[in-house]
Amino acid sequence: MASKGGSSGGGGGRVEIEKLSVEQLKAVKEQTDLEVNLLQDSLTNIRTATSRLEIASNALHDLSLRPQGKKMLVPLTASLYVPGVLDDAEKVLVDVGTGYFIEKTMVEGKDYCERKINLLKSNYDQLLEVATKKKNIADEAGAILQAKLKQLAPTP
Questions:
Q1: Model-level pTM?
Q2: What is the pLDDT of residues 60-75, one digit of tens each?
Q3: What are phi and psi of 108, to 5 degrees?
Q4: Which end of the chain, N or C, is less packed with Cβ atoms under 10 Å?
């Protein structure tokens, strides 16, 4: 079934999808709807990650403007802050995932955030294109399924 959905992305896919039985069309529609939902979840996750990185980049910018020795609140979690003093604004710890942190300069930290933001935006655009194609396939399968069901329905 995956080969039918995958091959329908080309120009001749419409002919192939119209030849499917009602049961096959239902299966194709269900599968592509499921894939669209998963892709939409991934798009949401990418948007969330991008937003967090943009917040981190802005925080780095704000931190670079503060003088050494400045008292501030340091976030330990999303809702827990402790008092602290800014020791050296030129060195930051960057969370690179799975509990690993790397010490970088402020400029390297900002650069890391920007590169990750650009990568996520690129991935978002590619994923959006795939999701749109899958949605079109699901819509097409649904329309053909409705037409076939209408033909099979008894006329009064």
A1: 0.75
A2: 998 888 888 889 998 8
A3: -65, -35
A4: C
Q: Rg for the chain (alpha carbons), in Å?
A: 25
Cβ atoms 68, 87 nearer than 8 A:
yes
Q: In Å, what is the CA distance from 115 to each residue of 16, 57, 64, 93, 111?
A: 42, 11, 19, 16, 6
pLDDT digits (tens, 9 = 90+) for 97-146: 898 999 999 999 999 999 999 999 999 999 999 999 999 999 999 999 99
**Which residues have C-beta within 8 Å of that of residue 86, sequence separation ≥ 6?**
63, 66, 67, 68, 69, 70, 71, 72
Q: Residue 111: which residues within 8 A CB-CB, separation 6 or more?
A: none
